[in-house]
Amino acid sequence: MRPTNLIVQPNIADIAQRLRSVRIGAQLTLLDVERLSNGEIGSVVLGSYERGARALSLKKIIQLATFYEVPVEELISGRKNHRSPMEAKSTIDFQKTRDRAHTDIDIRTLAQYFTEIAHLRGDWNGQIITIRESDLRIVALICHREIGEVRQWLSNEGLLIK
């Protein structure tokens, strides 16, 4: 089969640059990724992928996309899945959540869950916490609510900042 110029394939250097950009955009160092992935994604290996010095398997690119919470297509092609800012991340008043933990069992559960997230991500300022869409899905499951209900509930309780 003769190659044509109708289909533009991604090149390794572009994929490597996107991997690095996604990591930096998440404000993570290579060592942060290794720590947060419990060693499943080694910092040295990830650095090699980001420089294009090491070949990426399909299994590894799926693992990285899952870790970074981006579609595989975004890492490979650069095409972004546009999500609204509310869907992408939500900022929670962490201090108020902890202060109100004794008033409501669901809020107590939230405070415990957000504390675990803060510890796992090393994101500990104690006042606010930014949670991902996947975190909100887990909150919805824990609290037996739909995800839209969770956002509304957090807002009504004065816990959702944005």
Which characteristics define this entry?
Arc Repressor Mutant, subunit A, single chain, two-stranded antiparallel ribbon, elongated, 10 helices, 162 residues, mainly alpha
Binned strand content: 5-15%
Percent helix: 55-70%
Could you give the order of the helices and strands? HHHHHHEHHEHH
Query: What's the N-to-C terminus distance?
Result: 53 Å
Determine Rg (CA atoms, Å): 19 Å
State the CATH architecture of the largest domain. Answer: Orthogonal Bundle
Average of the residue pLDDT scores: 84
Please tell me what the overall shape is. Answer: elongated
* Number of E strands: 2
Q: Which segments are poorly predicted (pLDDT under 50) over 5 or more consecutive residues?
A: 82-87
Largest sheet, in brief, is: 2 strands, antiparallel
CATH class label of the largest domain: Mainly Alpha
Number of DSSP helical runs: 10
Strand order of the largest sheet: 1-2
What do you see in this structure?
There is one protein chain. With 162 residues, this protein is mainly α. The chain folds into 2 domains: 12-77, 434 Repressor (Amino-terminal Domain), CATH 1.10.260; 85-156, Arc Repressor Mutant, subunit A. Helix content is 58%, strand content 6%. The chain is built from 10 helices and 2 strands, in the order H-H-H-H-H-H-E-H-H-E-H-H. The protein has helices at 12-25, 30-36, 43-51, 58-68, 72-77, 85-88, 94-99, 105-121, 133-142, 147-156, and strands spanning 89-93, 128-132. A two-stranded antiparallel ribbon has the order 1-2. Helix 2 (30-36) packs across helix 3. The protein is elongated, with a radius of gyration of 19 Å.
